Amino acid sequence: MDHLSRIFSPYDTNPMNFNPLRDVLEASVDFELLRRSPMKVYLSATNVRTGKIKVFETSEIKPEAVLASGCLPFLFQAVEIDGENYWDGGYMGNPAIFPLIYGCETADVLIVHINPLERAELPKTATDILNRINEISFNSSLMREMRAIHFVTGLIESGAVCSHNLKHMLIHGISAEAEMAGLSVASKLSTDWAFLTELKEVGRATAEAWITDHFEALGRRSTIDIEVTYL
What is the pLDDT of residue 64? Predict the structure, then answer.
């Protein structure tokens, strides 16, 4: 499947644009209730025409927005919304942090990493090289936002600017680098139930460990060194 996607586009292999994820979404999520909810949800997608990021806010979220936010262009046709076509938001914002800075009162941002930031081994096969390129590309937008946050934080802490004019963000991160780096490229296309269950358990164990070690830091300090991790 991976090799075929490099030769044939989804417009060749799926001309009717059938997407089984739509049925799952509509059966699992009450989008009308979500849009009326006071909970703030942001989904990002990449505008194919302009290359700019599009952030869908709670009132705009519908099945198409969710499909757009996860539309990998080698696997799915671009998702059209209001005359514009969108691909996965990870190309321009993975995740987009700025809506949380300007649209929420809390200073805490908790980032859940699903792509490893580092890999010890040099990729040598064509598939491994392409996979690493994708990982770096998807992490690059996060790196840029972290650089900006680090710069502003430095200005605030040094007293160079008034903290009332800029928001002092507290950054946290949950990651299972060893487990994620150990997964093969093919695992990204795996829908094996045992594998998905294993991922769930790894995620739960990692989150529980983070809560035990860092919960008391929420609202007080960052628990990740932005300079060491992202710069």
Answer: 97
How many angstroms separate the first and last alpha carbons of the chain? Answer: 35
Question: How many helices and strands, by DSSP H and E, does the chain display?
Answer: 10, 6
User: Which own/partner pairs from 8-17 qualify as long-range (CB within 8 Å, at least 24 positions apart)?
Assistant: 9/74, 10/73, 10/74, 10/75, 10/76, 10/77, 11/77, 14/76, 14/77, 17/77
Beta bridge partners of 80: 85
Rounded to whole angstroms, the Cα distance separating 16 from 77 reads 10
- Residue count of the chain: 231
Cβ burial, residue 58 (10 Å; 0-12/13-18/19+): middle
Residues 164-192: tens digit of each pLDDT = 778 899 999 999 998 988 887 778 888 89
Residue 71 and residue 86: Cα distance in Å, rounded? Answer: 7
CA dist., res. 135 & res. 185, Å (int): 11
Query: CA nearest 45: which of 34, 35, 37, 56?
Result: 56
Q: Are 138 and 188 in contact (CB under 8 A)?
A: no
Q: pLDDT tens digits for 129-172?
A: 988 888 898 888 899 899 999 999 999 888 888 767 788 999 99
- What's the pLDDT score for residue 163? 63
pLDDT surpasses 90 at 208: yes
Condensed to tens digits (0 to 9), the pLDDT of residues 22-51 reads 999 999 999 999 999 999 999 999 999 999
